[in-house]
Amino acid sequence: MPVALDALLAELPADAVTTDPAVIEKYRYDWAHDPAAGMPVAVVRPTAADQVQTVMRWASTNRVPVVPRGAGSGLSGGSSAVEGGVVLSMDRMRSVHIDPDCRVAVVEPGALNAEVKAAAREHGLWYPPDPSSYEICSIGGNIATNAGGLCCVKYGVTTDYVLGLDLVLADGTAITLGGKRLKDVAGLSLLKLFVGSEGTLAVVTGAVLRLVPAQQAPSTLVALFESMVAAAAAVVEITRSTRPAMLELMDAATINAVENHLSMGLDRTAGALLLAQSDAGGAAAGAEISAMERAALRCGATELFRTDDPAEGEALAAARRAAFPAIEKLGSLLLEDVGVPIPLLAQLLSGIADIAKRNQVAIPTVAHAGDGNTHPIIVYTPGDADAERRARKAFGEIMSLAISLGGTITGEHGVGRLKKAYLPAQLGPDVMALSQRVKQALDPLGILNPGAVL
Ligand SMILES: Cc1cc2nc3c(=O)[nH]c(=O)nc-3n(C[C@H](O)[C@H](O)[C@H](O)COP(=O)(O)OP(=O)(O)OC[C@H]3O[C@@H](n4cnc5c(N)ncnc54)[C@H](O)[C@@H]3O)c2cc1C
User: Fold this and answer.
1) Residue 172: partners with Cβ closer than 8 Å, 6 or more residues away
2) Which tens digits make up the pLDDT trace of 83-118?
3) Ligand 1, residues 67, 112, 137: which to mutate, most atoms within 8 A of Cβ?
4) Which of 42, 64, 285, 326 could in theory staple to 257 by disulfide, Cβ–Cβ 3.0 to 4.6 A?
């Protein structure tokens, strides 16, 4: 055992540190399964913030890389382990307390998004951010990636709900930013710097999250189109006049993959499926759905289906959320997360189709369309080196396409390790240099999640 690890073991409870290779293996990868993940010397699973401080002080003294980890559902290799480092897993810090008078949740970072939603529901409240992975991802990971999701088109993303953070810095200093107060402009807006920082600037050990009144049961609209381009035009038309609580898009390949996976009667012949919801309630929801229907028809919808039955609506949303697991059955995946201003969605989608054709790869595509955020999913046969080369080429070309349209290489999954090489092309040298200066100021030894993002 490395001597430095002895010092850490002496300071933490025995069950907080494991060096068992079988356990370590389970903490090496996120859902991106990055083959370049290193072999850490230990997994540390603290139960309190002061233990996180101990880990960071020890890591600073011994210059050991630390990879903060939530639930490992990330799609960009952000929590891939680093060779010779430690994985700092927050999965044992998961308390959730609801303060209904302040309308906030006070949470530890390992709490799953679904656990926060469930606790809020008991008080008639709602924590809106809803990544499709909400049942398997942690709040700490959501904060570190500034996660989005399906209802974000109306309700915003994670950062819009973070009122306060407890953080442990690289040198072990514990700080608190913000809190239960709804308005607070004292000092620099440091809180937002840490949201989306992907474990590179600090470890999140606690958060105060804003809650809102429970959502009304949604009404749902499904519109089918002959092509993704026609559906993209409908997205522009719908968002121009209404504010849907969900506006999701699936292409033909995704519809078929989901149908193979769930057998729920989706129309396999459709070129694109647009799934919209209104949570305005009662007659207002009916009016919103009708307005969306008219907009879809103006853009060539071939079939429409609407329902006020929440169970039916949830089944359709679940079908959309099942897109990744369904497509995962088709082969190895490279997951994209590119976004553009909404009016450029059609151009992005037809460009992706061209890239698929040129590189002879399948790229089923789903999208949080109302946010202009798409997930082209490049599928290739595992073990086929040429197919993998073509897939990687397509991966880069899609990001270049998004940048050329004034878009982003990542709308919600983060840069992690898989997209790091493409970040300078989007940000440019001055913003990259500024970002490096921030990193240097907060983590001068470069021990927090090295190799990710910057
Ligand atoms: C099926 C599926 C569907 C998905 N759908 C969506 C979606 O709709 N929207 C979306 O945004 N994402 C989605 N994701 C991606 C993923 O779930 C999110 O990125 C999520 O926020 C990651 O949370 P996690 O707890 O799993 O974090 P991890 O994967 O463990 O870590 C993610 C990043 O956060 C950092 N981190 C984790 N915890 C902390 C902490 N306490 N302090 C500091 N840094 C930390 C890690 O270092 C890493 O950089 C999906 C993933 C899957 C598998």
Assistant:
1) 53, 54, 56, 57, 60
2) 999 999 999 999 999 999 999 999 999 999 999 999
3) 137
4) 326
- Please tell me if the CB atom of residue 443 comes closer than 6 angstroms to any atom of ligand 1: no
Ligand 1 close to Cβ of residue 71 (< 6 A): yes
Q: What are phi and psi of 264, to 5 degrees?
A: -115, 10
pLDDT digits (tens, 9 = 90+) for 306-364: 999 999 999 999 999 999 999 999 999 999 999 999 999 999 999 999 999 999 999 99
* pTM over cut 0.85: yes
Determine the CATH number of domain 96-213.
Answer: 3.30.465.10
CA–CA gap between residue 155 and residue 178 (Å, rounded)? 21
372 lines ligand 1 (CB under 6 A): no
Q: Which atom of ligand 1 is nearest to the CA of 139?
A: 25
Which atom of ligand 1 is nearest to 144's Cα? 34
Contact by Cβ (8 Å): 402, 351: no
352, 328 in Cβ contact below 8 A? no
Which one is the CATH code of 3-89: 3.30.420.40, 2.60.120.280, 3.40.50.620, 3.30.43.10? 3.30.43.10
DSSP 204: E
In the chain, where the domains are located = 3-89, 96-213, 219-324
Q: Where are the beta strands (DSSP E) in 90-161?
A: 96-99, 104-107, 125-126
Atom of ligand 1 nearest to the CA of 324: 1
Task: Determine contact, residues 452/199, Cβ cutoff 8 Å.
Answer: yes
Q: Is 324 in the pocket of ligand 1 (CB under 6 A)?
A: yes
For domain 219-324, the question of CATH label 3.10.20.580 is answered with no
Tokens 């990744």, located at residue: 324
- Supply the residue whose CA is at minimum distance from atom 2 of ligand 1: 133
| Amino acid occupying residue 92 | R
- CA distance linking residue 54 with residue 316, whole number of Å: 46
